[in-house]
Amino acid sequence: MLPAEQRSELFEVQIEAAEQSLRPAGKEQVGRMLAVIAATQQCKLPSQEALLKYYDILSQYPVDLLDIASNEFLRKCTYQKFPLISELTTEVHELLELRRSRLKAVKDLQDDFAAPAKLTDASGNTQRRRSQCGLNKLSESLPPLDKLQPDQSAD
Q1: Helix, strand or coil for residue 46?
Q2: Where are the domains of the chain?
């Protein structure tokens, strides 16, 4: 097993990478994406009130996932129309949830190693609990980072 200091550093690197993959887009980035879609589809942007809802919902997603969503919409859309919010989020919502679950799993594992609980067996003996999956099985219990990143070869 790795020394506590090295484990802590590894967890911090994994947590930072997971948090980075969840960093939400700003409204300006969402606006640019919507403008590109409107120009490509040769259609008008929705009303200002509707755009506010687009900004509120879509700004929760990371920029790379919004790129995937807009590219998939443009690739699949056969009509000259502006996408509904759900037409954009459906493509990437599962990826967003996978990224969130990865962050939670890494933080939970870090907590397991930082403060291991004590278990009492049937005979009343107290034992230190080992992490359920351990560092060696981290890659088995979490989705690989490359599955959480956009596929660059698809573009």
Answers
A1: coil
A2: 4-154
